[in-house]
Amino acid sequence: MAKRGKKYRASLAKVNRDTFYQLDEAIKLVQQTSYSKFDATVDMAVNLGLDPRQADQNIRGAVPLPNGTGKSVRIIVFAKGEKATQAKTTGVVDVGGDELAAKIQGGWMDFDAVIATPDMMGVVGKLGKVLGPRGLMPNPKTGTVTMDVVKAVNELNAGRTEFRVDKAGIIHAPVGKVSFATDKLVENAKAVIDALTKAKPATAKGTYMQKLNLSATMGPGVKVDVTPFRL
Fold first, then answer.
1. Is the distance from CB of 113 to CB of 139 less than 8 angstroms?
2. How far apart are alpha carbons 204 and 183 in whole angstroms?
3. N or C end of the chain: smaller count of CB under 10 Å?
């Protein structure tokens, strides 16, 4: 393991590695131990008791954060006709179809999110190898494949976070910025926890919410007591 820097070690010294903190205490610690010069993101990692190899347990979704993410989002929309006209009124980066797909295939990637109407998924599907690895592929489960493009754009701009279980059964989700008031971050974190609880597959066995860690982009992880959030 690479040797950690002085700033990291100083931050780590403020965290009791054997303690499972209450959510608000953990968030305060994350804010206090972040040592980046920029406004760092607060990330949540949740170990879930499920088997991602089972199709019905490979959960994925999105949740609006009550206080936003603190990030500006560059959005593109695949749509045509009236829906394209509506999308253009929302201030997105670009709207189109085949020509937009060709632009992306040519190497243009100046966007953070992709929305598509269902009838455009044939065009978008050809971009799977480009968008998929970057987590940008539109999906009905995350509300990014929809006929209501204006609502989808507004939700992304207002701030929401997407989650998807990885092969190890862990969900990673940003819940805001270190500069947020602690209570705002607590509200955002609880929104994600509630969404994960509602997404629990009926076939999941044993303890569903097993571990929860919070950390800043540059800072040590802080363990959270998940007892209050277990079903």
1. no
2. 31
3. N
Nearest residue to 28 (alpha-carbon basis) of 189, 173, 162, 210: 189
* Residue 158, SS3 per DSSP: helix
- Cα–Cα distance for residue pair 34/220, rounded to 1 Å: 8
Look up tokens 């009905």; give the residue.
140
Q: Is 176 left (phi over 0), alpha (psi -120 to 50) or beta?
A: left
Q: Would you say how long the chain is, in residues?
A: 231
Beta strands 113-116; 170-177: pairing state: unpaired
Q: Where are the alpha helices (DSSP H) in the chain?
A: 6-12, 23-33, 81-88, 98-105, 121-125, 128-131, 149-158, 182-198
- Take residue 199 and report the two structure tokens written for it: 């997404």
Q: How far apart are CA 48 and CA 84, in angstroms?
A: 39
Residue at 48: amino acid letter: L
**Could you list the pLDDT tens digit for every one of the 231 residues in the chain?**
445 778 878 887 888 888 999 999 999 999 999 988 899 999 999 999 998 888 889 888 888 899 988 888 899 999 999 999 999 999 999 999 999 999 999 999 999 999 999 999 999 999 999 999 988 999 998 889 999 999 999 888 888 888 889 999 999 999 999 999 999 999 999 999 999 999 999 888 889 999 999 999 989 899 999 999 886
Angle at 103 between CA 100 and CA 109, to 5 degrees: 100
User: For strand 75-78 and strand 113-116, is the pairing parallel, antiparallel, or unpaired?
Assistant: parallel
